[in-house]
Structures are given as C-alpha cells and as structure tokens.
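Onboarding guide, step 5: your first structure request.
Type a short instruction followed by the sequence, for example:

Predict the 3D structure of this protein.
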Amino acid sequence: MESILESLYHGNLHPDENIIPDDPQYSILRKRVSDIIELWKDRHSAEEFDELEALLDLYGQTHGMELASSFKYGFRLGAGIMVEILTGEEELGSRLISVGDKT
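The system replies with structure tokens like these:
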C-alpha cells in the first residue's frame, strides 16, 4: 500500500470520488431526487426535461466548486491548528488559513 505522500505524488488521491455521506437520510434523499427527476421526465416535454437537465448540470458544477472550496478551507484549518500546536504561536495558524485563493 502506498503512503499518502506517494499517492499524492502519483495522482491517486481523489477525495471527491471517495466521499459518500454516512448519514442514513442520504440514500433516502438520493432516491427521492431520482424519483422526482423521473416524474419530471414523464410529465414534461423532452425540451423541458432537457432544460431541467441543463439546470441540474449547472447546479452540479457550482456545487462541486463549493465542495472543493470547503475541502481546501478545511485542510488549511487543520494545518493551521497543527501549526499552532507544534509551534505554540497561536496567531500563526490563523494567518496561514487566511492565505490562498479567494475564489
């Protein structure tokens, strides 16, 4: 088994593909969404359904960007906590998590 650093180097880390919520409501909600999409497909014209799919695709893209930003912030926050713990410099960690892109 590769170390985390080796996996990172080889491009084998894909957290977005490996995170599945363990909340029991998740699978229930996913099923409801799927059922509602099928209802829309049955009740609306092909053109209207294509518009819905385009909207859902846009939502998926923006949601993916939000998840990536949350992941980066969480990683920086964790690293900042570790810096504060290891160095004893309480404000250094706070300064580190504020560094980076503002997207």
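Each response can be followed by summary notes, for example: The helical segments are 4-9, 15-18, 24-43, 46-87, 90-97.
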